[in-house]
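Reading group handout, session on sequence-to-structure problems. Before we discuss, look at one worked example. The prompt was deliberately terse, the way you'd type it at a terminal:

> structure HMA domain-containing protein

The input record follows.
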Amino acid sequence: MENNVLRFKTSINCGSCIKAVTPFLEDVLGIQQWEVDTNNPDKILTVQSAGATADEVLSAVQKAGFTATAL
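And the output record:
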């Protein structure tokens, strides 16, 4: 399956926020790896996807109580 890199501007801004969103992102099939750059002012979430769509990632982030916008 094709690997894609998806990027999002988020409101995930600290370690506790990352902990809160982790179970939601881990439930999305097709995410191989993800990370949030909390040092970036836009709190960029980068997702290595092997089938997960941007909409699925956005939905997971929103279910965790955060905002995200695809870049």
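Points for discussion. First: The CA atoms of residues 29 and 52 lie 6 Å apart. Second: Helices lie at 15-26, 54-63.
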